[in-house]
Each structure stands twice: as structure tokens, then as C-alpha cells.
């Protein structure tokens, strides 16, 4: 009685190969044109430069606020400057003060 060997189907390894090649193609496409791909690198570097500039501007603003906060130290406050600033902010004046009205748009 002759025995016949069963041949393995050729479509399983072929299907697996096609799936892996497709996945490799997807990874290659994603590496080139994806959100963090090679083509997006210039935009990412531009965003980094913009954020560094914004960070420097915010740091300068923080330093300005820190300087203003140190001026409010009770050991360093000058009463004349405090009253002058308070009256300027509250739009109030003493009866013996001389006021000079200046238009802020034309004054430089």
C-alpha cells in the first residue's frame, strides 16, 4: 500500500510573508511621514525654537515680578514712594499737591 505524504499548504508562509512585508512598509512610511518622522523634524525644531523664545520671555517677566516683590519688602519701603504710588493708583491727591495732567498717548 503506497503512502502519500501530505504537502503543507504554500499560502500560509506566503500570507505571513505578505503580512510582515506590509507591516514593515507601514513602519517605513510612518518613519518618513509620521508625526515624529524625518519630514516632520523641521517643524519640530521650529516649534522648539518658538517655545525657547517664549520661555525666555516668560522668564524675563518672572524676574520682573520677583524684582517688584523684593521692592515691597517692609525693611526697604520708602514711605514717600508708597504714598505717591498709592495716590497715583487710586487717582487721589492732597489739597496742596500740584497736578500736571499728561495724555499717555502723546507723552513719550
Condensed summary:
With 108 residues, the protein is mainly α. The protein is built from three helices and no strands. It starts with 10 loop residues before the first helix and ends in an 18-residue tail after the last helix.
Structure write-up:
The structure is a single chain. This protein is an all-alpha fold. It has a domain at 43-108. The protein is 61% helix and 0% strand. The longest helix is centred in the middle third of the chain and has 31 residues, at 41-71. The chain is rod-shaped, with a radius of gyration of 37 Å.
Note the topology.
Elements: H1 11-33, H2 41-71, H3 79-90
Q: So what's the overall shape? A: rod-shaped
Distance between the termini: 113 Å
Structural class: mainly alpha
Radius of gyration: 37 Å
Helix count equals 3
Give me the strand/helix succession: HHH
Strand content: under 5%
How many E-type strands?
0
What value does the average pLDDT take? Answer: 86
Give keywords:
mainly alpha; FtsL/DivIC; single chain; coiled coil; about 110 residues; Septum formation initiator family protein
